[in-house]
Design goal:
Keywords: Membrane, Signal, Transmembrane, Transmembrane helix
Largest sheet: 4 strands, antiparallel
Number of helices: 3
GO cellular component, one term: membrane
InterPro entries: JTB
Protein name: Jtb protein-related
Radius of gyration: 24 Å
Number of domains: 1
Order of helices and strands: HEEHEEH
Length: 115
């Protein structure tokens, strides 16, 4: 399977854009985020909104009259991006090194046949 550099870059950009797009999706109509995504405390770990990701975000909902404050599970975007980059950068380096050594081996192989 032959993947050129441009295809590889396109795939990385697509994954980054999908990750960033997720940050702009609102949870519900009538609810607005009033806080950042923060780690749940030890006391909150059993709450439904903390079980999935161990992070929570505060929302103020005004759907049915009086405002109500709720918490929803969220993901720490900075941590997600750092984890993503921690995977992608080494993979890009390994790919680049593999590409270089394969090219070098093919060139050496061609030089042997010329002699």
């Amino acid at each position: 399977m032959k993947v050129n550099k441009l295809s590889f870059i396109k795939i990385i950009l697509l994954l980054c854009s999908l990750l960033l797009l997720q940050t702009f999706v609102n949870c519900e109509e009538g609810c607005q985020s009033t806080g950042e995504c923060i780690r749940c405390t030890e006391e909150e770990k059993d709450q439904e909104y903390c079980k999935e990701t161990n992070y929570k975000q505060q929302y103020k909902c005004t759907d049915l009259g009086e405002p109500k404050t709720i918490y929803k599970s969220c993901t720490n975007k900075t941590q997600d991006i750092m984890s993503f980059l921690a995977f992608v950068i080494p993979m890009a380096l390994i790919s680049a090194l593999s590409f270089y050594f394969i090219k070098k081996k093919n060139k050496d192989h061609q030089n042997v046949h010329k002699i």
